[in-house]
Design brief:
Elements: H1 4-21, H2 26-40, E1 45-51, E2 57-63, H3 67-82, H4 99-122, E3 126-134, E4 137-146, H5 154-193, E5 197-202, E6 207-210, H6 212-218, H7 222-225, H8 230-233, E7 236-242, H9 245-250, E8 262-269, E9 275-287, E10 291-301, H10 303-338, H11 346-378, E11 385-388, H12 390-402, E12 408-413, E13 421-424, H13 425-441, E14 447-455, E15 459-466, H14 489-492, H15 500-510, E16 514-518, E17 525-532
Parallel strand pairs: 12-14
Antiparallel strand pairs: 1-2, 1-4, 3-4, 5-6, 5-10, 7-8, 8-9, 9-10, 11-13, 14-15, 15-17, 16-17
The structure holds adenosine-5'-diphosphate.
Adenosine-5'-diphosphate is lined by residues 438-439, 442, 466, 468, 471, 479, 484-486, 491, 496-502, 525.
Length: 534
């Protein structure tokens, strides 16, 4: 028979252990363990030192010890861990002290200092150290300290050690829980901050996670998507490839062990009316017995790829069209001239060679433009800049274009004393020529094409005004992008590649200037560019 107080002690221990093991907060568990250790042993103080991941010992909890005592002990452990003694030569040449050495040095220092630190401060005289271990795994040590003299009896030790063994389990659980929680938080943070849109849904498509990128991409905030059916939260239109979740499931998706991911490509219709091209891949997550528990949807914005794709097809059609015309003309004239049965007079030969020469120039210019466009795209435009006179250049280019423009009057209203600019002569010539030929090309009924200038404190501005049909304001924003041509009858019957204005913009911006158009879409248009004054 156990004496009465032992029974009470045991019952109390059982109660307290039950309370402790049901907690998952590590700090709370440690506090309860320390408190119970003091209560059970009618001790005056207790302290729990745990092993940290690198082997360092840290006093994580204490009762009845002064802050000074704890700081002194902590500093001693710190010193011992910094210099734990000779590292074990494990043959790898790795000089770093091993985890076990650091741990032993920390515990040794703690126990050596304990009597010196506690006796003068708190009058604590005897103490017992109980390892908190689970099997081979040493988690730390529980210390119970008492003021009165006399040793801890073998029975005290036994009771305390069985308490410590149980407490170790609680500490371990709380620690594991803490780790799992920290890992979950990290995973959540990663999912939340990944650049791709991520949604996690349960087996019946109900959304349980909707990350920030997806909220931004779809325009649907997480608060609205959570709990809804995935396909109702994300409305996909214009499906181009793959199959939607519902379609795939109708065909037996997901098969356990299938390696090909399910994907669908289309446009998301945002609540604000805009559409975003996306590719969505779906990955099933199975629990035991092939039970589908989650589906992870990865939503990627592929607007840029689609745009690149569109540009590629435009490029191919523009280039083939623009190449075909001059090549056909050159071939036609050359074959005609070479016909063995015909004799051509001097004038016909000269005219034909003239066409061949002009068309070859057109081809060369097209090739140059394409090369320039790819350089501009790669950001590798090289400028040979010098101080230059824009007025002289404008006059010269206008003069040159007069011979080609029989139905137009070209005027240059540019004063001879324009401030100098620091620019690439050939490139600026290209810009002005381009604007001038567009002005002529896109005002087929003729009229006056004017080049004017304006000076501001920082810039010189050159403008080319034509009497054509103009460009409606809503059409103007795309005008300076690669291969962009307006969708109107005039443009359709006028040859061009949609590269001219793109190149003008690239050149002017490389000079630190700006380029823009003013037009009301009825009374002609004025293209202007500015260059910083030298
Ligand atoms: P291209 O003339 O080779 O088509 P540009 O890049 O020079 O290419 O011009 C892009 C488009 O802008 C043209 O296709 C045309 O639709 C429109 N555009 C350019 N200049 C004018 C203008 N002066 N008046 C009306 N439309 C213009």
């Amino acid at each position: 028979m156990l004496p009465d107080y032992r029974v009470r002690q045991r019952d109390y221990l059982l109660d307290i252990l039950q309370a402790i093991t049901s907690r998952l907060d590590l700090n709370e568990v440690l506090r309860l363990v320390a408190q119970a250790a003091v209560d059970v042993m009618t001790g005056n103080a207790a302290m729990i030192a745990l092993v940290e991941p690198a082997g360092r010992i840290r006093i994580r909890e204490s009762i009845g010890l002064s802050r000074h005592a704890l700081e002194t002990l902590g500093a001693g452990i710190e010193r011992a861990s910094e210099d734990p003694g000779a590292p074990v030569d494990d043959g790898t040449g790795d000089e770093a002290p091993t985890r076990a050495l650091v741990r032993e040095a920390g515990l040794r220092s703690l126990e050596m200092m304990l009597p010196r630190v506690i006796a003068p401060n708190a009058g604590l005289l005897e103490w017992i150290a109980l390892p908190l271990s689970i099997g081979e795994d040493f988690l730390g040590q529980l210390y119970v300290l008492r003021r009165r003299g006399g040793e801890f009896s073998p029975n005290d030790r036994q009771v305390l050690q069985s308490f410590a063994d149980q407490a170790a389990i609680a500490v371990n659980n709380a620690r594991l829980y803490q780790q799992v929680n920290a890992q979950k938080q990290r995973l959540d943070a990663i999912l939340e901050s990944t650049a791709d849109g991520v949604a996690i849904m349960d087996g019946s498509h109900r959304v349980v996670l909707w990350n920030r990128a997806l909220a931004a991409l779809s325009g649907v905030p997480a608060g609205e998507a959570l709990g809804r059916d995935f396909e109702a939260a994300i409305r996909l239109s214009d499906k181009r490839a793959g199959s939607t979740l519902t379609e795939a499931e109708a065909n037996g998706w997901p098969l356990v062990g299938a390696t090909r991911p399910l994907f669908v490509e289309g446009d998301i219709e945002r609540p604000d009316g805009a559409a975003v091209s996306v590719e969505i891949t779906f990955a099933p997550i199975f629990a035991r017995e092939a039970l589908l528990v989650n589906i992870v949807a990865n939503v990627r914005d592929i607007t840029r790829f689609r745009e690149a794709d569109r540009l590629k097809s435009t490029f191919v059609s523009v280039v083939s069209h623009e190449l075909k015309t001059p090549v056909a003309l050159i071939k036609g004239y050359a074959s005609t001239l070479r016909r063995p049965d015909a004799r051509w007079d001097e004038k016909t030969i000269d005219d034909s060679l003239g066409v061949i020469e002009d068309e070859s120039d057109r081809l060369a210019e097209l090739i140059d433009n394409l090369l320039d466009a790819s350089r501009a795209q790669a950001g590798s435009f090289r400028l040979a800049r010098n101080e230059m006179d824009l007025d002289a250049l404008v006059t010269e280019i206008v003069q040159r274009h007069r011979s080609q423009a029989t139905r137009h009057t070209l005027t240059a209203d540019v004063p001879g004393d324009l401030p100098l600019v620091f620019a690439d002569h050939a490139r600026i010539t290209q810009v002005i020529s381009n604007l001038l030929s567009n002005a002529i090309k896109y005002s087929p009924d003729g009229g006056e094409v004017k080049v004017t200038s304006r000076v501001t404190p920082g810039e010189v501005i050159i403008s080319v005004t034509d009497p054509g049909p103009g460009i409606a304001p809503e059409m103007q924003s795309q005008l300076f992008t690669r291969f962009h041509r307006l969708e109107n009858a005039l443009t359709q019957r006028t040859p061009g590649t949609g590269l001219g204005l793109y190149l003008c913009k690239s050149i002017i911006e490389a000079h630190g200037g700006r380029i823009w158009v003013d037009s009301d879409g009825q009374h002609g248009s004025t293209f202007s560019f500015s260059l910083p004054r030298a």
